[in-house]
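Title: Prediction job returns without error message
Component: structure pipeline
Severity: low
Priority: P3
Assignee: unassigned

Description:
Job completed but the reporter wants confirmation the result is attached to the right record. Sequence as submitted:
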Amino acid sequence: MTTAHDFSFTTIDGKPLPLSQFKGGPVLIVNVASKCGLTPQYEGLVQLYHDKQADGLVVLGVPSNQFMGQEPGTNEEIQTFCSMTFGVDFPLTEKVDVKGEGAHPFYKWMLGELGQPAEPIWNFHKLLIGKDGKALKAFDPRTEPLAPEIISAIDAAVTA
């Protein structure tokens, strides 16, 4: 059976990023953009990462330029913006497509696992995978990273 751990991204600085390296902890995968009205959510994502890191949570930012061109920068520009503006210290991937025919295979798999709620409708769409790599839940872009429903889903994934 395929799990999220069968997929791999490339880090924002060009190194392999197999999701299998995160086995044993939940991962919140978020498609991000630097020029979106929701960009301030980076603050909540950093806070969430710091609050739940001891529980094994990894937040993974996946830059995408698919929503009104709101992530136009190069990988280097994106990384600089995220670290300098919001202190992002969780892993970031290189820029990829997150929906449609050219979507990264992980996103196609999540759509198959969770159905329509897993397909990003905008920047800052959040996908939670369990410590075993199973698809758990999708969260709307407007759901803040520190919202009770995200915290409780992460807590449940940690103890599962």
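Comment from assignee: result matches the submitted record. The first helix runs from residue 41 to 52.
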